[in-house]
Amino acid sequence: xxxxxxxxxxxxxxxxxxxxxxxxxxxxxxxxxxxxxxxxxxxxxxxxxxxxxxxxxxxxxxxxxxxxxxxxxxxxxxxxxxxxxxxxxxxxxxxxxxxxxxxxxxxxxxxxxxxxxxxxxxxxxxxxxxxxxxxxxxxxxxxxxxxxxxxxxxxxxxxxxxxxxxxxxxxxxxxxxxxxxxxxxxxxxxxxxxxxxxxxxxxxxxxxxxxxxxxxxxxxxxxxxxxxxxxxxxxxxxxxxxxxxxxxxxxxxxxxxxxxxxxxxxxxxxxxxxxxxxxxxxxxxxxxxxxxxxxxxxxxxxxxxxxxxxxxxxxxxxxxxxxxxxxxxxxxxxxxxxxxxxxxxxxxxxxxxxxxxxxxxxxxxxxxxxxxxxxxxxxxxxxxxxxxxxxxxxxxxxxxxxxxxxxxxxxxxxxxxxxxxxxxxxxxxxxxxxxxxxxxxxxxxxxxxxxxxxxxxxxxxxxxxxxxxxxxxxxxxxxxxxxxxx
Length: 486
Ligand SMILES: Cc1ncc(COP(=O)(O)O)c(C=O)c1O
Fold this sequence. Notes:
Blueprint: H1 17-30, H2 43-50, H3 54-66, E1 70-73, E2 77-80, H4 107-113, H5 138-148, H6 164-178, E3 187-190, H7 192-204, E4 210-215, H8 219-226, E5 231-238, E6 241-242, H9 244-248, E7 260-263, H10 277-290, E8 293-297, E9 322-327, E10 339-342, H11 348-357, H12 364-375, H13 378-404, E11 410-412, E12 419-423, H14 429-438, E13 444-445, E14 458-462, H15 468-481
């Protein structure tokens, strides 16, 4: 326990030092500034720190000990008593113990305060968004890390845009594997895709600007836009993701006023769905005509099995109003907190400036390790292995669901990559999720992804980080919990 600094105590000439020290220490103990169990400095050190005689200090400590405020443990020292005297008469009113109302939060802070904490703060089997952590090539990672960990250039500041070799290897990877048009100068390394979304919200939106979002869709993005007091305009999904025809044919109220549209066109979150090339071009055309930013979140397109991966929306034309983003959370692991933005060249500077005061630089050592991990071929090898592994896990989960739960549950096949969304009609999915959680399994309620009245109930199950036994046991547990709403 931390001991407050005694040197801040001031003594005056009007009363004896002994009396004043006794009062200070008693007040500190009663106010909780010195909590039970705190070890006091030895009397010699305390006397030196206070600039008074050791005799005075020992007399006061002895007095407080006899009153029950302190207790000494032979060979260990003097501590604030575990149980303090109840009746503390004659002490002045202590400011520290008074409950004073705290100053008000912002409207956004107040609204956020009313919502529950993220349900994914714990890693459980079936928590969505978690890659197979045990299958990560830790040995290789550590070997690369050892090479870099005492490099002095990685210990300082390097500039907010991100480590140059990482931006170089990333731009090559994105060009080759995702069809993104980019140079290293257009890339900004972020603290995950979540920070990338928040930066877009800060830089592209004025307070109150309308934003089109997928419905159902990613909650973290909505939160970032709400922090700008945006009016969220929900856009329903069609068979392949966001319903492009509804938007382009002006069938969504106020859609034409949207300053920005957030989409996951290569694997709609959470239901899967991939916009066709024709739909992408139509959307690009609409956005250019309406002067609307398109935020393309390519959070996990390395892993989905129902359709072949499709190139990015950003890469489809030379001049597009698209900001592309991705993350290493799914391809490597979430605790890295590394993501990236690809912005039009003219915007790179403003994003770098915003990032410098919204979270600062991303850790250089980690960026250097990721750069070598990519350059030496480990990244592509790891993705290849994980694709096969997750596909096996998906098939196993599907078999279990059809063997055990085919009557109650409809898996949404195209959602599968690292998670599987399952529709469970007529069920209170928030309660089901809570009950499943109490049995030790993570998941998300499908209804929680809707902005308005949910049209589906069910669960989103992250399967990438599950073992075979966890999947088998988990589905048995789920079966026992599903109770239709009467
Ligand atoms: C659709 C989507 N976008 C962005 C993120 C945020 O990822 P990151 O961990 O990189 O912040 C997630 C996280 O699960 C996600 O599902």
